[in-house]
Structures are given as structure tokens and as C-alpha cells.
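Why run this: before we spend reagent on co-expression, it is cheaper to look at a predicted model of the complex and decide which construct boundaries make sense. The entries below are exactly what would go into the expression plan.
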Amino acid sequence: METHQSQQPGQTLNGAESLVKTLLACGVDTCFANPGTSEMHFVAALDRIPGMRCVLGLFEGVVTGAADGYARMADKPAATLLHCGPGLANGLANLHNARRAQTPIVNIIGDQATYHRPLDAPLTADTEGWARPVSVWTRTAQRADQVGADAAAAVQAACAAPGGVASLILPSDVCWDEGGRVAAPLPPLAAPKVSPDAIEQAARWLRSGQPTLLVLAGTALREAPLADAHRIAAATDARLITPMSNARVSRGRGRFAVERVPYSGDAARAKLAGIRQVILVGAPPPVTFFAYPGKSPRPYPEDAQIHVLARPEQDLADALARLADALGAPAVPVPDGATPAVAPAGLAKGAVTSEAVAQTLSALLPEQAVVVEESVSFGRAFYPGTLHAAPHDWLQLTGGAIGAGLPLAVGAAVAVPDRRVVALQADGSGMYTVQSLWTMAREQLDVTVVVLANRKYAILLGELAGVGANPGKTALDMLDIGNPDLDWVKLAAGMGVEGARAVDMESFADLFAMANKRKGPFLIELVI
Amino acid sequence: METHQSQQPGQTLNGAESLVKTLLACGVDTCFANPGTSEMHFVAALDRIPGMRCVLGLFEGVVTGAADGYARMADKPAATLLHCGPGLANGLANLHNARRAQTPIVNIIGDQATYHRPLDAPLTADTEGWARPVSVWTRTAQRADQVGADAAAAVQAACAAPGGVASLILPSDVCWDEGGRVAAPLPPLAAPKVSPDAIEQAARWLRSGQPTLLVLAGTALREAPLADAHRIAAATDARLITPMSNARVSRGRGRFAVERVPYSGDAARAKLAGIRQVILVGAPPPVTFFAYPGKSPRPYPEDAQIHVLARPEQDLADALARLADALGAPAVPVPDGATPAVAPAGLAKGAVTSEAVAQTLSALLPEQAVVVEESVSFGRAFYPGTLHAAPHDWLQLTGGAIGAGLPLAVGAAVAVPDRRVVALQADGSGMYTVQSLWTMAREQLDVTVVVLANRKYAILLGELAGVGANPGKTALDMLDIGNPDLDWVKLAAGMGVEGARAVDMESFADLFAMANKRKGPFLIELVI
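The model came back. C-alpha cells follow.
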């Protein structure tokens, strides 16, 4: 093992110190943390060694979701610091979302000393077993002189295309034992390019004249590859689409847009009717979110052919650019967002509707905003309705595990402190990781939180209606969160975040414009 | 499979309906729930079939912790209803605590339809893999005509001595398919009695004259077995002790007391110095919570003999009674709590200290209160200081996964609505499952929440000091939750719970006395 220069000859380090120095050497300089007793030597090492920004979350779901949001915007991983199996467990739902987003995260879980684990003390749990299903790489460090190398391997694994969660379990004695060795960064495992054959074959499919759908995901949703996808579409009449939920889409005025597969299976099947071939670009074949009795779980025609241009771990931008070239597809201009038909129509007035909120967002969204959307049912108009807003990135709940939105906003704001983060947050989901507000206040993050307060699990009321018969009191009670009403302005104040309530579009526009100009966080409870 | 009478001949049920009817037939009539789309047919069945009390939690950690608190007080399981792998994941930490408490829970996790799972839709996760480490029994239902039998098996497994989490994963098509069959309850698997040989052998150990420790846990901590343990101790000079954290201890005036193994390894080793033999009664051998460099993880002398009177799954009360008889140990009177030396000293005045709070609790605790204690560092005086309070049960965080206290209080209050629940809650831990307050308001549960607001992870500051050197800003920042200060009165108000702040012992006593007389919940933020 080569020793990195950040360790001086003859310098004695413990395992924790070698770990921190290795992470820094590998470019990991941000740690979202909720430490416990078994991590005290790691905390002490963070204290002694300058260079790591530590951001505290009051709950592990905040920590892991923030690490996800950070890497989506920073394009490099943060570390987490979690406490034992149960601390990991609290962070699993957002690690599940990160897995679906293919987000690189160096997920560090402090744990019992190697020799203490067999004694089955109260906090001992199956840390590895819980980590593995969300991780591309899982390892329990065993020795202080190897934990540096373990950390370098974790960073490499997390960053290997397309990105994923690398879980490093860190027994406390591995931290406190002397003999730590700082490891050099391992070479990045970049995305391999697709073969020339694959490009040629895709060009043949596209020239076949069959109604064709190109499904784009992952890094294909950045500005340049989207432009190339539009060259392909214009040259071949292929249709472009993305999954319903994506880690990050670059969009807004001057950028190419792509529709999403609708959430509703019926709407999705209607949209994809007539498709004869589906070409996947870093995406899985479309699938409905849930199954429903008697309905196909695939939203495309049963006899459509499924082809793969590029797998998720391949270089998607390169594949699209080469395919466009192979088709001889000329550059196409971005559709003009300034035409009256699609231009922002100014501020909406009056009653709060999904479309009205989208209109006001479209008019007022700051340049280069990061929109974190976990709007669930009410937000149906937000995505299409903000197509011509100022250029922005749009981050979504990728794994369906609600409670991602506010943590993602924390992480994004840490990653890109010069950009405003706008969190469009359903109330029921927001309560899952409401502790995020405290971290926003503590770090004075530039986040505008818009809580869409409908005071019910509205999406489930729709689903229940689909099941049949008139729902009775028991069912309605299980889907109604309005008894008692949550008061989000008080919740925010309880965690040090200023807030106010909007009940119509005029007050929303005033508050939204004001909030986006402030330093630090502000919460708007939008009663819908 | 015998069909239970609650299914009429010729009656057609879907799987969900047969499941609900089977649970009711098995005596499970309370369901803590946070449902999602895949559970809509189960929700619809709960709606159509009367008899199940459904209690909604806004986060799954509330749901699973409430199911734990419920069964600790009701001595029978509740059901949970969780949504897919990530919903389970959010509830795992409190299921870990329930596992350590040996609490019976019928843990129902709705999931993707059997035929949808292979399609790997966004919410699909390794539900079974996550459930197994906390469960004594895990099964994924496969067919509507078998899910009734699955449910009966789950109840039997959860209740098999000493009790545990039985996880039943419920694909949505198993719920909606027709052909459900209600299953009859399976015979309970009661705790087997220890053999006559084991009793005789234990009597010989106790008569040996060696300094002996009896470690009591689980059901040995109820009133009658504690009295028998005291007969044994009085007759043999054996010392009695319990683990630091226990699911439920019956205590207070007129009842026998037992000390706990101290949390600190040094204190525990000092207390157990000189012990030559350890006899386990439903307890594991004592172990320190964490390992520390150079210190033994066992708090008893290395050469002490470890003996087992009864394993956790055996009948502990019977074993203690028979052992006391075998020793010819006469009944002993409960130590008189009314002597001046130990009687409550009235209400404490002035500054808020751990001892002062214990004194006031001791004076004001309502008869038959259920005390849920997650006081972490500040609560050191609470347990010894309330020995002579009115008779009560004391429930603790058993698995070290913080965030159990408020959910346990929810569940206990649902289980024993005629008793006051007093939650002694550290602030840092309370934030983990702060959503519990909303359920308390919604169900108007008789809970007095006392938040011990020290605005730091105080226990970790102690641990950090143990690691060495003066902590710097990075370390202190990671252990300080006072920037910004949490305002618990506002947090409570945001969820519909009335509250007030106490800054000295006089205001605390006034608020505590008032709160305990009210209907419904009240929160006291005690600034310490």
C-alpha cells in the first residue's frame, strides 16, 4: 500500500486519523453526521485534522438524504457518519432513494469494537445485513493499519459509474488502535463507452421507421446529452421520455425539455400507446410504481421490442453524442420559451391550485435555482408548468421512500452555496424528516421551503377510491392527517427557522419572492 | 386448516379480509399504522370489518415503538401496518428495541404484488432481508387462501415465550385476491418450566456460601417474582440485580426494589467486585454497553462462574418461586418506604438537578403511572430516587436505539387508558420520533411528556472527554444541539399538543401536578 504524502514519515496515527486523512486525500471534504459513543475517536480525529466540513443532523434520515442531495449537486460524494446498526437503520430509507438515484455516498457506520460484537450488547445489530441491500460495496474494517485503504476503496466504489452507496462499517477499536496508514486515492472507475457496434445497431433501429421511444435517465438528463437526444429525435421522429422520478434534470429557459412517464398506469399506457420499440439509455424498462388488479405493470405495448443503447454504468452522454453523429443529425435550436403560448404568464392570483403555483414558480424561480420536489399528489402541474422558468436543476424522490425532500435540500444547499434551493414539499412526507429544518437553521442554508399543506395523505385517498366502495371512518382516519392540523410555522419556529403562512396566490408570491432574496432558510406553509 | 367461526359458510373474502378477521380471532385488536398504496386493500378491509382500533403515526418509528409500548403494558401484541421495505426500514430502530425487550409484535409490512416484485419498481427493496435481523419469525405471504393461516402463525410466533417480533410481509395481490380463509388461533407456546434438577442445582450454588449475584430480567421483574427473588436473597445473602435497561419493572411503594447494573463500566465493575458466581434468570451475562480501550467488556470478575437458572424463554416466575421454596426461604416484608430515611421529601425547590426532579417525581407521580424513561444522561437520579413513589411501572429504552421514549408512551397510553403515562424524555433522543406528539394529540392520550432540555448530546460529551484531549470546535459542534435552541413548546403546539416551559423546580412541580390531572397530553419543557 502506497502511503500518501499527507502522512509525514514517522508520524503516528490512529485508525480514525488515517481514515480522515484518506478521505480528504480522496477529495471527500464534507461529512453529514449523527455520531454516537462508538464514533468518539472519529469525532476526535475530525477535530484534530482540519479540512472536513461536518454538518450535524438530528436524525439519520436527514444525514443520509443530505448526503444524497449533496452528491447530486456536487458530483462527488460526501461521507456520512452514523451510529451502529440502528443509526444506519434510521438512514436506510433515504439510502434506498440514493441507491435509486445512483448517488455516490461514502456511508460510514461506527459500530461495536471487533471483540465486543460477539458479546451482543444491547445496541449490537446486523449492521452489515442492513447495509448490503442499499450498497454497491459493503465492508467492515478490521484493523487500524488497513482502514485507510478501506476508505480509499470505499470512495472508488461509490464513484464507480453510475455511482452508489459504499458502506464502510467502522468498529471502534479500528478507530482507536494506533498504526493508521493514510492511503492514496485509487484510480477512478469511469463509465466505459458503448461499443461502435452498439451505436450502429441503435442507428439501424432508429432508421427502421418503427414508432420508437428513447428512455433517458441518469447523467443523460444533463444539458448537453439532452441536446444530443433532441438531435436524434428531430432526425428520426423518435420520442424522448424519462422515468417519472429522476435524480437531477437540467432544465428551464434555453434548455431542451423531456416529458416523464406519468405516475398513473392508465395515463402512462395511453401516452406510450403505439410504441413499437423502446431504446434504453441508462434507464430500466418503464414499469408502473405499483401493480393494480387486472392491469399490466408495463406501461408500453406488450409486443414492443426492448433495446439497450447504454447501460446505466456506461457513458451516456458519449453514447448519445455518437449516435446523433452516426445518424447525421444536425443540431436543433432550443424551442423558444418566449413565445406567448409557453412564456410565463406572470403571477397567478386568487385560489391556490397546482397550476397557479406552477405559474408563480415559473415567474419567480431564481436563476440557477435547485428545485427539490417531493410534492406527491398536489404537484402534478409543477414540472410541466415550470419548463420555461429560469434555468434550474430539478431533484426528485427517486425511490418512493417519502421523507427525502427536506434532507435533499439540506445537502444541495451545502454543495452549491451560491445557488438558491427551493424545496416543494408535501406535508405528510415532510413530517418524516422534519428535523431537517434545524440543520437548515444551524448552517444558515439558503433554502426556501414551500410546504404544500393539504393535511391528508391525498395520494392514498385516490388509491383507496381505486380499490372500490365508499371509504368509511376507519379508512378515512388512516389517510387524514388534519386531526389535529399541523402548524408548520410553529414547527419551523421550534427549530429556529422563520416562516409564514400563505392562503392565496398573492400572499404566496409575496412570501416566495421575499424568501428567495434572504440569506438563510425560510418556510412558507401554503395551505392548499 | 380449520376455518374459524367468524367466517360464515359460503362467505367470500379477499385475502385482506381474512387477515383482519384472523387477527381479531387471535385477540389482536389494535393496529398502529402508516399505510401506503400497497396496503389500500388492507385499509379497506379494516374499514369494512369492525373491531380493530387503528392508530395512525406520521412516521414508522412512531408506529413500531408504539406497538412495543402497547404490548409491554397490554401483555399481548398489537399489529403494525408499514409500507414496503423503506417503511419497514424507518421502523427498524424501534423494532430493534422491541427485540431487546422481547416484546410480542405482529409486524405487518405491505409490499409489491408477488408478480410486480421482479420488475424492480422504484420502491422495491429487500423487505425480508431488512426484517429478519429484528424478527423471531419472518414470512412473505404468497396466496390469499393462506394469508389467514400466515397471520395465525405470526401471532403464535410473536407470543411464544419470551415474545418477539413476527414479521409478515403482505404482497398487495395476496390482499386483493379472493378466496381468503379465516384461520383459527393456534395454541399458545407458553414458557416451559425449568427442570427440578435446575432448581436443585441452583439451590446448591446458593448454599455454597460464595458471593453470588442473581441477574433478573424480563418477566422476573413483575411484582410477584421480585418478591420471590427477595425471599431467595434474604435466605442466602445473594445479591439481586437487573440489566441497566429493562422492558418493564413493577416498582414503587409496597413493592420490592432491585438495583440495576450501572451504565458506566467502571461503576459496574466496582459494584460487582468480589462476586464469585453469577446466576442468570432470563438475563444474558452482564456486558458493558460499549467497549473502551484497555477495559474489560464484562463488569463482573473474570473468574466468576456463570450459571443459568432459567433461560429467557422459560417460566421465570415459576423458577424463582420454586427455588425460594427449595431453599425454604420464608416470605420477607417489603422494606418500609414510610421511614424518614427513604420517604419522599416533598417537593424540591430551586435549581433543576437530576436529584431534585427525582424528588418531585417521587412526590407527585400518580398511582399506577406508567413511567417511560429515555432520560439518557440527566436521568441518573430518577430510578433510584423514585423507589418510594406511588406504585408504577417503569419502561426503558432496551436496545440503545434512541427515539423509543415518545412512541413507547403512545403505545402504553393506548394499552392502559385508565393509567397516566409519564414520559421522561431527553431532548436529543426525543427529536428522533418527535412526530409521536401528533398521535398523542389525535388520540387524546393521557400522557405527560417531560422534555429534559439540556440542548446537547450530553452523554457524548462525557464519552468524548474519555477519549482524551480538550475537544475543539468541530467536535463540540457535533455534540451541541443548542445552535439553534429547540423550542419544544412550539414543536408541541405545531402538532396540537399544549405545553409550557419550566425553568425551576417550583414551576416544574406546578406544571407536572396540573398536567397529570388533565385529560389528554401535555408537554413540559424542563430547561436543565
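The longest helix of chain B spans residues 84-101. Residues 339-343 of chain B have pLDDT under 50 and may be disordered. Bring this page to Monday's planning discussion.
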